[in-house]
Every structure is written in structure tokens, then in C-alpha cells.
Amino acid sequence: MTSTVATESTPDSRSEDARLERELTDTWRLCRGFAGWFCETNHTVIARRMLVTAFVFFALGGVEALLMRLELARPDNHFIGPDRYDQLFTVHGSTMMFLFAVPVMQAMGIYLVPLMVGARTVAFPRLNAYAYYTYLIGGVFLYVSLFTDTGPDTGWFSYVPLSGPQFSPGKRVDVWSQVVTFTELSALSTAANLIVTTLKLRAPGMALNRMPLFVWAELVTSFMVIFAMPAVMLATMCLALDRLVGTHFFNSAVGGDPLLWQHLFWFFGHPEVYIIFLPALGMVSSIVVTFSRRPVVGYLPMVLSLVATAFLGFGLWVHHMFATGLAELGQGFFTAASIMIAIPSGVQIFCWIATLWSGRLVLATPLWFVFGFVAIFVVGGLSGVMVASVPIDLQVHDTFFVVAHLHYVLIGGAVFPLLGGIHYWFPKLTGRMLDERLGKAGFVLTFTGFNLTFFPMHLLGLHGMPRRIYTYRAATGFGPLNLLATVGAFVLLAGLLVVLTNVVRALLSGRDAGPDPWQSDTLEWSVASPPAPYVYEHLPCVAGRYPLWEGIRDCVVEGMDPRQRQVLVTAALDAAPDHVYVLPGPSIWPLLSAVATGVTFITMIFTPWAVPLGLALGTVCLVGWFWPRPPHEPLLAEQP
After folding, report:
1. pTM value > 0.85
2. Buried b vs exposed e over 123-140: b needs ≥16 C-beta within 10 Å?
3. Residue 314: in which H helix or E strand, if any?
4. Which of 89, 330, 491, 502 is disulfide-compatible with 326, CB 3.0–4.6 A?
5. Any alpha helices (H) in 201-320, and if so which ranges?
6. Of the candidates 98, 124, 134, which has an alpha carbon nearest to the alpha carbon of residue 43?
7. Which among 129, 106, 105, 131 has a CA at the least distance from the CA of 185?
8. pLDDT tens profile 199-226
9. CA distances (Å), 192 to each of 3, 120, 124, 200, 283, in order?
10. Which DSSP string corresponds to 409-471?
């Protein structure tokens, strides 16, 4: 084992620095050519692909939402029809929850966490590529089914017995269950990657109490993924067995229990909200610190709030089931837990307000999106406390009030911070600056359109408009508010198009950003924008919680060979250097393994022979994946 120590640095000659840079560039160079595109495992490349893919799915989900709003814009409308509407709202919900919200937050983590902790890449680069390809195959499979009129139509939650074989014949629900399996397998792979990267690849000196809050948020979220995702994978597996094999897990006529589905699904489904939400909190913390020009107020309470939210998030799933007839003791317990979950979020909001209040504010576009997030999320949190009460929940259950609450929490609590994060880290992703005037115009339109769209839904729900209906009678009086919501949806679309225009304009002709245009505090701003494939020429040594403000320690890490893809492994608690680990290079096997996974899960819908086929394909791919290669043997894809 190579020993690794951190020692005081000595001045190097320019020729020595140039030699080191050449060797690192050659060792970590990106794959070239068409074949190289499929072999690449660099974490920044895979993260950018995942970000672009997630936003493509976001656009598709947005088009589906606009079509539904057009259908509901006026009474007695038959613009779409019931069957297509059922497919649209199912695929819309599945897209936003499984194909956009979780993957986009994990993509931000995959890109930023290694940069923030001072690592050259993630712990498992090939697993990272496999996670992306698995996610992509699942998303494409869902939309192929929608475009061929065989899309799932039982809602993104697919309650039984509606989704069982008796009431949903055909393959629509089977497609949905396998898409969920694809996305959860991808999420689990990425979560394991982020956990190991955070705990074992931090720069020397970056103890746990010096980690950026965004890194803490991604770490806590990844542990939540590890515990939550298996529940929904188990649920969808049991559903698939009921439909394809003839088991009776959810068939009450022969001893099954339909409520078992709800327990399994919501044990995942409510932590899912915080899996989406916690990385957004980390983004907000980074933006607030940078644009208030001061350390965050209450670092320890902020970290403990993230951890408390994760723990409490697993203890309130049953508030989705108050209408199923629970015992009163259970209702009281889950009501208390559902109200208690607001406390850690409130702690964070007050810490941000204190930081902003005592800082020197720079009112850049990312901070505007933070202000919008706080306003919208507070409204969503208040309506969440309302539906945590059993009497109110029974009154508004399955009405548009719940639709409004869900979107205020998820769009306000995730999309607005995400847009702020995109504006904040866009210079690091691309090396270009976004236009501030277009950024602020996009925020104003997005904020206005969002509230015009979803606030009227609170009133529609209180007036009794049910969810999941494709039309309604004029006598109900729902028409004016629905029309207002539809107009708001197009204002929201205009705001998002302004954001997109800003991005395209910056990519084509934006001004150069430089390494640190915001004068930020974390390590990712100490390297070039966008970073080199090896990220750090000299691994940093951290001496404080805000390294770019407090100064990076002048040290050098010995024992690392620039001719190999090596990463420094450090202790989990205090990040003391431990040893050097050599990573495998680019490979086609993550893609082939994802294809094998896709072939197995998709053909499983039609034949049981998919199981032995999948075992054979998986064995071949794993042998190829882990087959040892000489350290300097080049891949075909790596040739000029």
C-alpha cells in the first residue's frame, strides 16, 4: 500500500508543473470519437448528460401538464378524452417524480460533490456511468409506451386493486412497474457512489464539521435513498408477480391486502419528497452564504436539521392514508409526526434569514430564486400542516387542494432552488456567465406564473373539485378558476422559456466566467471553469469551513503517480490521508451492463425466460467489467 502524507510544500519549477500537467492530462483525458462517447466514465461528463436528460424529461412532463390544463380550462371539454388524459397524468407524475426530480438532484451531486470535497472524481466511475444508462433506458421505455398509446394509466402511485390484473389488463401497468425499477436501481447506484465519495475521498483536513452544507445535504439524501427505494422496488415486484405470475399479495379475496401496497409505496413516497427537497436546501445554503458574503448562521443546527428531517421523514407516511380507516392511536401518532417535520425546515429558514440579515447582500439572480423559494415553500408548508390534521385531511382528500399543496412543496421546494442553483453553478458547468437581466425576467415570470397556476387550486379543492377528472360540468362553477390556472401555466411556460433562452444565449456568446465569478467560499471555485478532467492538479488541503475565504493550506500530497488514475482515500471522520487507490479507466461495459439490465426487465413483462437470459447476460457483463487490465493499456476509444 502506498503511504500518503501531507507535508509543507516547496516551490516547484515551471517545467515540473508543466510536466505534471501533461501527465495528468494524458492520464485523465476524455474518450474521443463515437465509440468513446459510450465508454466515458468521467464524473463531470456523466453528470452533464444526466442534467440534460433530466431537463428533457422535465420539458416532456411540462408539455403533458399543459395539455391537461388545456383540457380543464373550460367545462365540458373533450380536447383529449378520458383514456389519453389518464395516460397523461400518470406519465406526467411518473416523469416529474422518477425521471426528473430525483435524477436531477443526484446529477448536481455527482458533478459538485467531488469538486467540493477536493476529489478528482467519484469513488466508482463505472457504476456512475451504469446508473446513467439505466436511468436513460427506463425513461425512453416509458415514453415509447406513451407514444404508442400503451402508456400507464393508473396514476404515478398505481393503487391496487385498480392496477391489479382484474381492473388493468394489458401491459400498461407492467411498463410502469418496470420503469420504477429502472429509476430506483439507478438512484441506489448513485447514492452508494455519493456516500463513499463523501466519506472517503475528502481532501486532507476536511473533517465532517468542515464539509459544505450542500455536501451534507447530498450525503443525508443518499442515505435516505438507500433506505427508501427498496420499499417501492419490493412493492412493484409484488405487483408484477400478481399480474404476471398469479400471486395474490394484494388480492383481498384470497387473503392479500390492498393496503399493503399503500404502506410499501408511501414508506418510499413520503421520504421521496425529502429526497428531492434536501439537496435543494443545500443549494439554498450555498447561495445564501455566497451572496450574503458571510458564514452561515447556525452551521451545526443546519446540519442537525438535515439529519432530523431524514429521520422524521420515515415516520409519517401514513398521513397519506388517513381516509383508509386507521385506528385513532395511529392517526394521532402520524398527525404529530407530520406536524413535527415542519420544525427542522423552520430552523433552516430562520438560519438563512439571520445570515441574510447580518450579511452584505449581492442581489444576483440566484438569490432572487432563493427569495421565491422561501415564499412559496412557506405556503406549501402551511398547507402541509393543514392536511396533517385528520379532520381537514378527510375534507380535502383527493381534491385539488392536495394538488396545490404537492406542487407548492415540490416546485417551490425543489424547482425554484434548482433554478437558482443552475444560475449559480452555470459558470462552473460551462465557463460562461448567464445574463442577469434575462435571469431576473425569467424569475419574475416563473414566480408569477407558478402562483397564478397553483394558488387557485387551493380554492378549487375547498370548493370540492376532485383530482384525476378529465372534465367537469359548468354548473359546478369550477370554470373561472380553472381558466385562471391555465393562463398561469402559460405564464409559467414563458418564464421557463426565458430561462432556456438565457442558457442557450450564454452557451453561444456568453462572456467568460473565470474560475470564481461570485467570490465564493467552497473548493469548486478554486479550479478552472469548466474543470479539467483531473479537476485538481495539486490536491487541496483544507484548514477551515470556508476554504476560499479562510485560505487553502499550502501543502502537497505525496505518493501519488500522475501516470495512473489515482484518488486519495482519507479517514471518514477527520479526513486524515490514508492510502492511494487506483481507479479503472473508461469502459464500454457499464453501457453493456445497463443494456443487459434493460433487456432483462423489459422482456420479463412478456416471458419468464427473461430471468435466465438476464442471469447469463449479467454474468458476461460483470466478467468484462471487472476483467483486469494492465494499468497503461489504452482503450480503442482513447486513441486520437
Report:
1. yes
2. bbbbbbbbbbbbbbbbbb
3. none
4. 330
5. 213-244, 258-292, 299-313
6. 124
7. 131
8. 999 999 999 999 999 999 999 999 999 9
9. 26, 17, 9, 12, 21
10. HHIIIIIHHHHHHHHHHHHHHHSBPPPHHHHHHHHHHHHHHHHHHHHHHHHHHHTTPBSS-S-
